[in-house]
Amino acid sequence: METSPTPLLTIAQVARRTGLTAHTLRYYERIGLIAAVPRAPGGQRRYADSDMDWLAFLLRLRTTGMSIQGMQAFARLRSQGNASVGERREMLEAHLAGLRLQMQSLAQSADALTQKIAHYAGIERSLSQGPGPEKENHGNHPLPARTRQAAGDRR
Prior knowledge:
Blueprint: H1 11-18, H2 22-30, H3 49-63, H4 68-79, H5 85-128, H6 145-150
């Protein structure tokens, strides 16, 4: 039992599936991020599953903050086939290391924001309680030295 080949997709279908605009897809082709897409007899682009897989990977790189220039460099290496596998791996390792540093920095910033939010929430709670009768402070605050001496406390 043979399976029929997956139908090729139009640029409009690819745009809907990827969230990219047709203009962006044509731009990616023009700058070499994607190889020249085969065309139907009428000249319309027809994208294969392999094109969709590559676009999905490009979108991952874009999501991680890789620049267009970085993606172009990766695409050039990819076009060289297996001869550039090591270079591509090294490039992705360097990008991942930078991404991990950025994630660590973002986590630290998120912690600082969480602390500041908790601080402001505490202020809001105390403000919402409104001014009440003055309360004596019976906390663990030490008395000034003169007061301790007057009280007979000679620490």
